[in-house]
Amino acid sequence: MDCCINEMDDINLHYRFLNWRRRIREIREVRAVRYQERYKRMLKNGDTLSYQGNSDEVGCYVAPRPLSKGNCYFEVTIMDTGVRGTIAVGLVPQYYKLDHQPGWLPHSIAYHADDGKLYNGNPVGQQFGPKCNRGDRIGCGIYADTFDAGLVTVFFTKNGKEVGSVVVPVAPDGLFPAIGMHSLGEEVRLDLQAEWGSEEDDSVMMVDSHEDEWARLYDVRASGTLLEYVGKGKSIMDVGLAQARQPLTTRSHYFEVEIVDPGEKCYIALGLARRDYPKNRHPGWSRGSVAYHADDGKIFHGSGVGDQFGPRCFEGDIMGCGIMFPRDYVLDCEDEMDDWDAADVRPKQGRVENLLYLNDEDEEEGDDPEQEHEGRKVMVFFTRNGKIIGRREVVVPAGGFYPTIGMLSSGEKVKVDLHPLSG
Known about the structure:
The chain is mainly beta. Helices cover 12% and strands 36% of the residues. The protein is built from 3 helices and 28 strands. It has helices at 2-34, 202-211, 369-374; strands at residues 38-40, 42-45, 48-51, 59-62, 73-81, 88-92, 109-112, 117-120, 126-127, 137-142, 151-158, 161-169, 176-181, 186-191, 214-218, 220-223, 226-229, 240-244, 254-262, 269-273, 289-293, 298-301, 307-308, 318-324, 377-384, 387-395, 402-407, 412-417. A hairpin with a 2-residue loop joins strand 2 and strand 3 (48-51).
């Protein structure tokens, strides 16, 4: 009898062990499903997401884990806006329907790049912030100190600067990072480990103030005085362009660029261009521009064919560009400015000497019909590491010449000083 009881105990123990193993396996499978990223009509290659639909259907990505106190922020860099730029960045429940843009359905919220609107559980958005384009970084996060209150404060950023915030209820499973797309060619780079500090320290203020100096940034990201190429770099149509907000004038006639990282090819160009210069053309390639190119040392003046001009430039080199204005020169936007005495300029140590005005013998005599029709001629000069390497006479386009920087290969970074002679 005791033997039979022992055998029954062994059998029961065996089945209990098998049942325990089965339950452990089921738990692991549930956890694996729970923390699995979900996406539809998108191609994921590393940290890059590309839209793969037909523009009639939404593509959506949901991250594998929700935001938490230890990981409360993520960012998306727009690599390509595609046909319409209908890219959404936000937070959704774990099992959000992947054929809807984030923010359209209840318990979801998102900032949409194409119209700058906030969608908070509703297909009708509310005006919220600026529109976003190629090269812009859209961030989304939750203030960690609001996690335990049943409601959380969700905030959004553009290029590291907070756009706005809104209070939303906490979903039972948490709020998961999500990206939506809705037109051909859209592509983003996702960073689920991004960090963002809400303290307005000096570095944040520096980024904001310097970004304001640029009127146009295409496939170029500004971070303080640093410009970084963020385009594809696969063809000559992938030029990244940065154009200053203000043209060169007799008060500010020179600027410099230091090559921090030459990237793959050092396709970096420094020069001047008209205000409406094409965004996918290197400065110097098209009408109304002139530029010195680092990769081959050539000067390009309104043409895709360059002339040998100076030495090539590499990492650590400082390229400069300026205008030697005639003494009686007055730009349209300077009509109300007082005359400026060149003797008051004090260039920094080791910088190029001030060449504000042409010497009298360099000025052209007589009237030029073409000059009267298109604009006055000036002498543009270029420098390398503080030494002038050459000059080129050009006609100033209507509205003036704007400092313009072009980049075209992955990894290129430059540090810009738009006012090196100001103090």
